[in-house]
Specification:
two-stranded antiparallel sheet, about 270 residues, 2 strands, 2 domains, Serine Threonine Protein Phosphatase 5, Tetratricopeptide repeat, mainly alpha, about 85% helix, single chain
């Protein structure tokens, strides 16, 4: 805009100078003839055209300069916008990647928590199987392994059903698996009875004797001695049977089984 104003100013000055230069020839033409006036007019017209041409050239140059400046500014702005768009796209990509990573982490964490819960549940279940449980064995409250209690009760279920072969097998297996269990004396007693029922007399007597050797004060010790005498009678060893009954009366005089022993001893004599 400043260049335009300067160009117009130049053109006006040129026109003024031209008119000023014309005054003398015109005055001369008034007194000197038409030729000089015509030349003065032509000269003025030529100067006016030159001034107009210069003005147009200046305006065109200025417009061209402005167009170039605008084009350059637009190009710079376009470049800045493209760069900004690129930055926005990169940020969106990074954000999307970050969100995806967070979602994956959240899924992994959830799966890990579920697995941990399953593991803890499994461990609790397994530990629960090994935690001692309360049991009453021959009138005594004791703590035993859950598997001991389960195996003993299964074996005794066979005995109560009078399935003595199955009871014998189950009780023998119990003693092999739980040799140090609190159930052992009772298992020996009931195994001896199952074997007696199955007419396995020698094996029966051995288990009753093991019970007496292991737990002479066991609540069923007197019954075990009476059972031994029964085995000896089945084996036709009356002398041994009488000795066993006498020992029973001497060892457990207050037991109810002692009365039975006395009656049986009287019959054997």
């Amino acid at each position: 805009m400043q260049n335009v104003r300067s160009g117009w100013r130049t053109a006006v000055m040129a026109l003024t100078l031209g008119l000023a230069g014309l005054s003398s020839p015109v005055q001369a033409s008034l007194f000197g003839g038409d030729d000089e006036a015509r030349r003065a007019i032509l000269d003025l017209r030529q100067r006016l055209e030159q001034s107009q041409n210069a003005t147009r050239a200046l305006i065109e140059q200025n417009a061209k300069s402005q167009n170039q400046a605008q084009t350059q500014a637009i190009d710079q702005l376009r470049g800045a916008l493209l760069d900004l768009q690129g930055q926005i796209d990169r940020l969106k990509s990074e954000l999307s990647h970050s969100l995806g990573a967070q979602e994956r982490l959240a899924r992994d964490l959830t799966e890990l928590q579920l697995r941990q819960k399953d593991v803890l549940t499994t461990v609790d279940d397994r530990l629960r199987r090994f935690e001692p449980v309360s049991a009453t064995i021959d009138g005594r409250d004791v703590m035993v392994d859950p598997s001991e209690k389960s195996d003993f009760e299964k074996a005794m279920a066979f005995f109560r059903q009078a399935d003595f072969p199955a009871a014998q097998t189950a009780l023998s297996s119990f003693l092999l698996r739980h040799g140090f269990s609190a159930y052992v004396p009772s298992a020996l007693f009931w195994l001896g009875n199952a074997q007696y029922a199955n007419k396995a007399y020698k094996e029966s007597m051995e288990n009753f004797q093991k019970l007496l050797s292991m737990a002479p004060n066991h609540p069923r010790a007197a019954e075990a001695m009476l059972a031994i005498s029964n085995v000896q009678i089945e084996l036709k060893d009356m002398k041994a049977a009488r000795k066993t009954l006498e020992d029973l009366i001497a060892t457990y005089p207050q037991a109810e089984t002692a009365s039975t022993a006395r009656e049986r001893l009287g019959r054997l004599r």
